[in-house]
Every structure is written in C-alpha cells, then in structure tokens.
C-alpha cells in the first residue's frame, strides 16, 4: 500500500501556541493537537477544541487555493455524500478547519488485517462514487473555487491521455521508467483513449484521489470521503482505477459493483481494465515528480507492469 511511499513535502510542525494563533480569527481554541501521519503533501492536525468538540486543522502545502474548492464541494454534496464540512478557511494563510469524522482509513484497516470491515463498506464506497458522478458538467477540465471548469480540455479522454503522452516524453520519466517501458505504455494508452472516447457520457465530478488513504470507514460503513483538492470534471473511471490500484479483500469488488448500480451508475463492458489503464496516468505522474522516493518509483513501475501484462 502507499503508506510506505514517502511524502512529497515535509510536515509543517507547529506548537499549540502557533496553532491557536492561526485559529484566533475563527474564535476556536485548541486545548490539544496531534499531528496526523496520513497524507503525502499537506499537513493535518487533530484538534481537541476547548468546547469539547474535535476538528482537523489542514495546512495546504501543495495548492493554496484548495481550501475554497473543498469548501465549495462540501457545500454542493452535503447531505448526499459523507464529506466533512469546512468550518473555517483562511486563504491568506492557506489553512482550513474541517469537521472531524469518526473512523479509520481503508488503508489503515487493511494494514491491521480488518478486511471484513473494509468489505462491509464496499457497497457504500460504490454507491457514493455513483452519487458523485451524477454531478455533471458541459466540459472536462480542472475546477475553480466556484465549481466552474477553468481551462477546459478537448474531451475527457484527450485531456487525460494527452497529458500521459506529454509525461512519457519527459526526461525524468524516461530515466526512471526506461525507454522500453515508456514505449510499451503508448499503444495501451492509445487504445484506452479510443475506448474512453467511445463511452457516451458527459464529464462528471471526479474526486481525483478516490483511494484507500482518503476513504474513512466506521463500523463497516463509509463515514467520510477526504481530501478533494484534485477534484475536476472528468470520468468516474479514474476513481475506480484508484480504488482498485492495490489488492482488495474477497467480496469487495462484487459489493462495490452492486453499490455503484444501486446509486444509479452504469458499468460499461471491460470497466475494470479500462480503469486500470486510466490509472497509468497517475503512475507516470508519480514518476515525473522530483520528490518521488525509491519506494514510490518502484511501486509505480510495478503497477504499470501489472497493468500492461493484463492488457496483453
């Protein structure tokens, strides 16, 4: 799992006094704060507030504008999807205070051997993805803080696989993956682009990082979908590729599929493999990052090799 992959940025370590200085405009006061170990870029603290409630202080290191985007998504999906409410955000100092949700991440539960609890939540995970995908857009592309597409792509497929082609030409990717692996990816990418273009669906809201580290589970139910900073208008199949990137427990896929259908989603023929092929973009993107450590590089290459072997 990706918990062994190193962080792209160092944690921002703050004292309790420094945290309360940040919180002062919100009129919240933290009695205690614990650094949360999850995440590969941003820094999160669990706050025990003076009024007895709990919250998360989220420091945006990768994208300072993500606080407003997460606030807009929580406002749009509240009541339909278990998204933590944004209680306060400060764009100037690039942080937000977010509602605390009970549960453990899917990744942590799997690492603890609690596979049955993860399988129990699979129906919720599939149904929630279907509900998210019902938010539709006229164009594909990244979203601004008003949930409007900014800098639209020619199409979902051309936006995703066009960027994959660009990354495959980058010297750092060539050096890490090797020219042969990059050449083997190209025909699979081209075929996947055609398959995705042939699916007659409008662009939809995509979480952008719908994987085990961002899915919170409590007592066998999905209690929260975390970290929406990569949200965009695209295809829900990206999320499928992310959730099935690593091995899942027995029965998970069947329950996920049933939940997705219950939520109104339709699964095209060959959906699992197409989702894997779309996830090639994420793996190659990891290889393009200067900050990627050896574990992330090796893990990404292993997933690419597995996907290519299944594609034939």
Automatic annotation (TrEMBL):
Transferase found in the keyword field: yes
GO MF: transferase activity
Annotated keywords: Transferase
Organism for this UniProt entry: Fimbriimonas ginsengisoli Gsoil 348
Gene3D superfamilies named among the record's database cross-references: 3.90.1200.10
Domain Aminoglycoside phosphotransferase: residue ranges: 36-274
Official protein name in the record: Aminoglycoside phosphotransferase
Top-level taxon: Bacteria
Pfam families named among the record's database cross-references: APH
InterPro entries per record: AGP_Transferase, Aminoglycoside_PTrfase, Kinase-like_dom_sf
């Amino acid at each position: 799992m990706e918990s062994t992959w190193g962080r792209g940025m160092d944690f921002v370590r703050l004292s309790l006094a420094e945290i309360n200085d940040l919180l002062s405009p919100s009129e919240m006061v933290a009695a205690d704060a614990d650094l949360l170990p999850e995440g590969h870029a941003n820094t999160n603290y669990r706050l025990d507030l003076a009024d007895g409630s709990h919250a998360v202080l989220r420091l945006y290191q990768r994208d300072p504008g993500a606080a407003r985007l997460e606030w807009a998504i929580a406002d749009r999906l509240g009541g339909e999807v278990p998204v933590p409410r944004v209680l306060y955000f400060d764009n100037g100092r690039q942080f937000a205070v977010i509602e605390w949700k009970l549960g453990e991440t899917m990744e942590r539960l799997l690492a603890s051997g609690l596979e049955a609890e993860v399988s129990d939540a699979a129906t919720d995970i599939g149904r929630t993805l279907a509900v998210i995908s019902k938010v539709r857009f006229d164009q594909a592309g990244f979203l601004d803080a008003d949930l409007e597409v900014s800098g639209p792509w020619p199409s979902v497929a051309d936006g995703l696989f066009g960027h994959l082609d660009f990354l495959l030409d980058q010297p750092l990717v060539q050096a890490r993956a090797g020219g042969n692996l990059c050449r083997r990816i190209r025909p699979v990418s081209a075929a996947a682009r055609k398959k995705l273009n042939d699916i007659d669906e409008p662009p939809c809201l995509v979480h952008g990082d719908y994987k085990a580290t961002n899915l919170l589970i409590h007592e066998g139910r999905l209690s929260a979908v975390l970290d929406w900073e990569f949200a965009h208008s695209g295809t829900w199949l990206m999320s499928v590729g992310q959730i099935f990137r690593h091995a899942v427990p027995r029965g998970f896929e069947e329950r996920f599929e049933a939940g997705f259908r219950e939520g109104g989603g339709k699964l095209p023929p060959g959906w699992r493999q197409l989702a894997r092929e779309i996830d090639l973009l994420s793996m190659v993107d990891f290889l393009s990052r200067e900050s990627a450590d050896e574990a992330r590089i090796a893990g990404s290459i292993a997933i690419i090799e597995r996907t290519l072997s299944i594609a034939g």
